[in-house]
Amino acid sequence: MAIWLTENSKIIVQGMTGSEGTKHTRRMLAAGSRVVGGVNARKAGTTHEGLPVFGTVKEAMEKTRADVSVVFVPPAFTKDAVKEAVDAEIPLCVVITEGVPVHDTTEFWAYATEKGNKTRIIGPNCPGIASPGASNAGIIPADITTAGRIGLVSKSGTLTYQLMYELRDFGFSTAVGIGGDPVIGTTHIDCLQAFQDDPGTDAIVMIGEIGGDAEERAAAYIEKHVTKPVVAYVAGFTAPEGKTMGHAGAIVSGSAGTAQAKKEALEKVGVRVGKTPSETARLMREIMQSR
């Protein structure tokens, strides 16, 4: 089992003909993902990497029955690309692009809400979603882990990869990189709910970082709604106050958003929090070995 992305998912790539789109389309195909076409209005009717290029997301869906779009378009055009995907009512839109203006993200997120939330948005500024052995939508390396029964949700791409690799002997149902921008589509809580409901997921790894209150809100959700074991890591214990670290959303103001505050909130509800990524992996290994 997996959440949101399965072996039956049909993927289109908005921006497939660009350099990043081309490179990662090749990687997704090599991973066994069912990539069925691309979208570029200026190159509609052509083929690229052996796949048809369509003028719009709607046309691509009509011709291929695609149900996932991966967005590899420049930041200035991302808002329109996501709105187009929302208008077409594609069920899942994975926005890889980094550097999208927060105002634009807020606008397309609100637009999706106005349209009834028929399109789940993951990202922007994220590595995507991978269900090992089934499908891969984004830039997560396909060969660093195996299929298994751990679910992973992470703000950080690099830490996503590290935890997947360190726990490769147990494997993952799905790994979701939600991105670290101040405004994102899918949240920790969305993923926690999906993993809780997924019979193929036995335990959950949650990776957070300084800034905002997403991890505190996730802790409150876990306390009330999650019965499966959760381990966590919060990046940024040594970050100086008032500095943006890495992601645009990773900024601490006073005591709000600190790694220590997040760690305490999570531990208060029974989540084991590792001091390092490797310790976090060890905590999850202990849980899986005891099952």
Automatic annotation (TrEMBL):
MF terms in GO = succinate-CoA ligase (ADP-forming) activity
**What does the organism's lineage look like at the top?**
Bacteria, Bacillati, Actinomycetota, Actinomycetes, Streptosporangiales
The UniProt record lists the keyword Oxidoreductase: no
What PANTHER family does the entry give?
A: SUCCINATE--COA LIGASE [ADP_GDP-FORMING] SUBUNIT ALPHA, MITOCHONDRIAL, SUCCINYL-COA LIGASE SUBUNIT ALPHA
How the protein assembles, per its UniProt entry? Heterotetramer of two alpha and two beta subunits.
Alphabetically ordered keywords of this record: Ligase, Nucleotide-binding, Tricarboxylic acid cycle
- What is this protein's record name? Succinate--CoA ligase [ADP-forming] subunit alpha
| Organism of derivation | Nonomuraea ferruginea
The text of the family note is: Belongs to the succinate/malate CoA ligase alpha subunit family.
